[in-house]
Every structure is written in structure tokens, then in C-alpha cells.
Amino acid sequence: MESFFDMVFPTRISGRFEDSVFFTLTKNTYIRKRISLKLIFEEEKTITLWENSLMAKPPNGHVLNHNISVDCVVFGFNGEELRVLLIEQKDFNGGNHMTQFALPGDLVFDDESLDDAALRVLAELTNLDNIYMKQFHAFGNVNRVKDLKDQDWLRSFRTEPAARVITVGYYSLVSLNDYKPVPASFAAKTFWQNVENIPQLAFDHNEIVMGGFKRLQEEFENKMLGFELLPKKFTLTQLQKLYEIVLNKKFDKRNFRKKVKKEGLIEAVGEKQEGVLHKPAQLYKLNKQ
Question: Helix, strand, coil shares of the chain as percentages rounded to 5?
Fold first, then answer.
């Protein structure tokens, strides 16, 4: 396999070169790193190479649209907390970039739909796929990517860091038991964060999280959507906890159980919890009829 130096300097050269670019292909995505190399050729002549472009030429002939992006709000429930999937942005500036957290999101290709872009971006950054994503809102504040902290990070790999970007929010509901995200591309880490304790995020992602949560509340109450957050078999305590978190209100235990059973939303599976320290609770599943 060719080394970096073989690819960049195939023959003996001398002189000064600036703004040269090379690419590393990793899992269908061109990853950008910002580096400075000082090499000595023929006595005192120095070559300084800067690789400062990520996805300047995406794979398979795709062209990035620098003005439109997608951001994914993926909610998960562990039986106690409602969480949202976040990434830690990778530092492309040699440790000089402040640690920032963000939603999984990126620019779209000119030749793909927004729905396809949301699925692609989520898979590229977290390795999660086969997830149903639903579009919920567009965010177009003219200054949404202009904060100094965000520009510092964008300049380290975007070819047009100052371009105005309108983003389209997508949200999804998953059971934490079924999905294990793995960071990739410009995501250094992935993690699930309690929605009640979201840190300061990059760009306007705090606003996007709240927008996704508001849509979840609306559809949970009006359309009874949200059971995807539960494991296939769940307890009534877990179900009540989910209702209370999403709708932000408390329910009387006895009245809640009477209500959900009467409405026929769930049915007992004839099994009880296993491996718990307390008295095992009856397990239920969603009645899909």
C-alpha cells in the first residue's frame, strides 16, 4: 500500500507548495484532517503542505450543496429516561478546537432527496441504519452557523465555512436496547444524553432538539405515536414513565393503568421480569390491532 509520501510526492521535488489537498477514504466518506508538514528537500528548501478540505470532492461523483443540510434528532428510552443521540465533533485543529457536542448532521448532496440524506448522514456518523426518520421542521436563521466557536470548527475542513446553511430537522424514535451507535467520519464519539440535561450544543442544535421534542409531544398525545421508544416487552411502570416524561405531567398509578387497559392499547404477554431485585412485574406488549 502506498504511503502518504508516495501519494503526495511520487517523484523527487523541491520548492514551496501551499494549499495542496489529499484525501483518505473511510467507510464511503472522505475524511478531512488539517495538518502541517515541514519537509526538507535538497538542502534548505522547505515544503509546507496543508490539507484543509473535507469532502471537497465527495465520493462517486456526488456534489455537496453548501447551503442545505439535515440534522437528526434520534430519541431513545431506557425505561427511566428519555435520551437524545449526540456526537462529539472531531478536532481537526491539532487539539486547539474546543470540545463541542452536536446532533448528527451534515450537508446534503445535490443529487439526493432530503429523506435519503438524513438516512445517509445518520449512518455515516453513527453507523445506525434501518431507522424510520420523519421530517419535522426547517431552521433558517441567517446566523445559525456564524458563531465564532462554530466558524472555528467549520474552517478546519469546510471549503465554504461562511456559507449560509438552511437545515431540515428529522426525528426518530428507537428503543435503546436495539441500537448501539458507533462514531465515524467527523464524529469522535457518540452518546445518549438525557433530554432534561442537554448541554450547550453546536450551531442552533439546542433549538432543533427542542423542536423535535415538541413534535414528539404533539404526535404522542394526538396520534399515539411513540411506542417505538419502548422495548418489545415492557412493564406498566415503564409505560407510565414514558408518558410522564414526554407529556411532562404526572399520572395517578391506579387511574393510569385502568385507562391504558380499557383503551386496549396493550396486552399482557404472560411473562414477568427476570433478574430484578424487586418483585417481578408483569410484562406487556403493544396491541397492534
Answer: 25, 30, 45
